[in-house]
Amino acid sequence: MAAVPAAAEEQEPLLGSGGDDESRYGDVVETQQHYRSRWRSIRIMYLTMFLSSVGFSIVIMSVWPYLQKIDLTADASFLGWIISSYSLGQMIASPLFGLWSNYRPRREPLVVSIAISVAANCLYAYVHLPTSHNKYYMLVARALVGFGAGNVAVVRSYIAGATSLSERTSAMANTSACQATGFILGPVFQTCFSLIGEKGVTWEIIDLQVNMYTAPVLLGALLGVINIILIFAMFREHQVDDIRQCKSINFEAEESDYVDQDAQGNIDQVAVVATNILFFVILFVFAVFETIATPLTMDMYSWTRKEAVFYNGIILGAIGIESVIVFMVVKVVSKKTGERATLYGGLLIILVGFFILLPWGKKLPNIQWEDIKNNSVPRIIFNEMFTPFWKLQTTQLPSNHTVEPTGCSVVQSWCLYTPLIHLAQYITSDILIGLGYPVCNVMSYTLYSKILGPKPQGVYMGWLTASGSGARILGPVFVSQIYTHLGPRWAFSLICGIIVFSLLLLETVYKRLTAFSVRYGMIQG
Questions:
Q1: By three-state DSSP, how is residue 408 classified?
Q2: CA pair distance 270, 267, nearest whole angstrom
Q3: Is 0.85 topped by the overall pTM?
Q4: How far apart are CA 262 and CA 260, in angstroms?
Q5: Backbone phi, then psi, for 497, in 5-degree steps?
Q6: Going by C-beta distance under 8 Å and a sequence separation of 6 or more, which residues neighbour residue 200?
Q7: d(CA 182, CA 14)
């Protein structure tokens, strides 16, 4: 273990707000070199989180057309399995990588997980080659990308352990901001690569096609390799004790006892379980929101598939930008109100957002009486594509067998009696959910890491990530079934009920959601 230099050497206060290169925490000090190394390593973790989220979102818009191109037997139901496979892989891997990081240097699970993602992206670029069962190769590729993304647990446990209580909310907010930025920029990269076209170019020596479908994953593989190089070159282990000390461990020392495994006091398991449940609900309702956007707007506003994807992409991009701003602002707000109160406020905002989405009034959506069986997609010229989305409700498409039918399908019986959800309702709801979700996301991670205290957090962070992944699997299944059979009124009413339950749970355990060191009286709350 690397020793802290003697007092005679140049030292600076630990973990306060003295300046750019120094910080104070009680009367304990860390050197300027260690301070810089610690924050350099934390920023490497920010980058890892960013690349992990890019790996999910960079192909999300092109999975369906690529799947249809490489395997004609694939249908929309199999697409659901491919999308869910990412979260399933992440849910399985998170506790495993977390456990690994508890007993071995974190560099090991980080490098292995990123290498898995790089290999999976390369596999995705070659799924067109087999003569059959191509859809299953794509399924495996996306599941492995998700498995590699299980390193999110390692990233968050490292950041929690390498920051003091006063630094942690800001660091967790920055981590979530990097994650959100990755989700935003992924589709942007995909849009840029669409200029290459479906044919692209072929590197015949290695049978590699570089086109609009494979270029994004090849970029992801390249960024993964760069990430691995940075981890080897710049990443070092650091552990900040919430009570008294800072330790810096370089991997060359090959020591794995840098965390006090027998820290005095026990973790409040009730608080841990409650936080996992709250985090599940937060990710669950947001997954529902993401999933329902396209079918809801197609049913309510008679948007075509292409219009729904395009305009919802713009809306979700705007929400992403809003979320990044909120991630930055919430660091300041939580210092004045506290993490628990901020989390409570975020849940209330989400509740109002879904309540607004409930159908009111007497006007019914346009009914799609004709169920056209062919799969042809209407041709939309460039200037039509940029028609303001508030004018699309009145757009009437020709009724023939070569044009996509629009409106609320009569197959869904609720279309005949459920009132229209006005576009103003939808936009307002988007804004509120985009405000509440990042607040709840950051506060959940921050409270969770503080509850765990100096204990090894790898496994616990793994379970938290796994609960979020499980929510992203179950949310789309839940809402697709309820929405299809019972309609938006039932779907959003049940979501409101779930959020009310989470508010009651938070109220019940409110006093237990305190930092480990505060709970045991080591630091004044």
A1: strand
A2: 9
A3: no
A4: 5
A5: -60, -40
A6: 209, 210, 211, 212, 214, 215
A7: 32
